[in-house]
Amino acid sequence: MSLQQSDLNCATSSFPTSTASLIFPSASQSFSKTLSSLKSSTLSVRNRLSSIYQDSLFVQQVANRYDLPLIANERCGSWYIPPEHKVGSAYFKSTDGHQGQWSFSTRRLNLQILEFVRHHKGYKTSNQHEEEFETDSTRRGKSMPDALSKTVPIWCAVMNRLLLDRQDQGFGLHTPMSVVAPSERSQIESRLDRFVSEAKRLQLDTSTLRQRLSGPLRPVFVTPDDPLPSLPSQAQAPYHPIVCLTSSHRVHGTENSEDNYIQGAGDDSEGWSQGLTPALFWRHKDTLMSAIDAELPQLIASFTASAQTELPSQRTAATLITPTSVIYIGSLGSIHSKTWDAVVCCSHTKPFPGLQQTAFQSANTASQPKVLHFPIPQGKLGSRALRTRLHLIHPFLQPIFQSTISEPAAKPLKIFFTCPTGIDIAVGTALVALCLFFDDDGNTLNFSARADKDTEVWADRKTLGAGVIVDKTLIRRRMAWITTARSDARPSRETLQAVNTCLIGR
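Predicted structure:
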């Protein structure tokens, strides 16, 4: 018995119990660093750009095959399309198609696609198709991003029911059978009526939108790993195909097994691009593709620095937000494109020379408009800073609107909301004004009949007078005005939270 116990103790102390026991600790750490180094080298910027270019060749091949206009699903879709071949962008999020989280986004309506469908009727294939081409990619392990396999089909089904008021087979939900199981498809279908009801509450101008469609929208799915489908002629299929193209082929193993090819290389570019954008990549493609890894950081830095000197007006112009005739949104670069009556500017940069760095300034000369300047940064910090400033929009604009009611001007007011990009913080400030000063027809509200004139009270009240109730439904409706007029508007979650806190206290 004693001998057996001794043998057991010997066995316990002699055999390794972990991987670290097999090699020296220093060697274990070296092995871990080697694996990390190998992964980093495989996922290098050069390999990413090479993979993006390889995928873009497939995108162009398919586009040429079908003779289709190309729409990039942002944020990564633009990496795969040369700018001269890209007709526009869309914003379908994969999260709206995730299992159990299926949704129709009232923030990202993507109504510009309907305009593309109408406009590109003259760009038909030899088979007389009227179609659009939606490009996106997905990372390793999936054959198709949820944005294309589920979010786009949901959008098509909702648009068909909303605008064409049909629910037969041709207007139903169409998803790829190889990706979406029948049970999941059934669960999504059970939610479509609710999605349509949510869309109807936005009070969109459906009569105008309906004129852009001569038949239902139907998604068609293309991947590098499947044969290209044949599209029927217009006579055989009286619908608008929306071709959902996955640009990257599926990687089943690691990137090392694919000769350093990276599936979905353009995804999450903030983490690897070092400031490089799709536009800069395509502008300097030959130089970037011929450089070695060590040269890329300096090259990218020089390209991004040069891009900073470009006029922002080349990126985004001022857009009138209909049905109003008053509110415009745009980047700082378009601030001199018109003669404005008032400007709400969110930027560290002064919108006009000599402007004092204060929260509010009335113009003293006829050459400058009245200005409300928020010297705040871009991004999350700027969106959070809005929470303490948005309440200033009401006392700034109310006297301007009130003066036009008492003394109508010969020309309609032009009020400009701006930030460096014109797609985030400026959208939030304009959204507050749209909720506070306009009725559902886009007319300026008359506040002269209000019993409560205290400008400090409005933010704590849900009723502003003139029968206007400020709630989340109203905010969504006014946001729909913005996204309909300006398809690239993408206010962050933090910006919209600041608006909700300002208007309804949550």
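Summary: Residues 184 and 489 are 31 Å apart (CA to CA).
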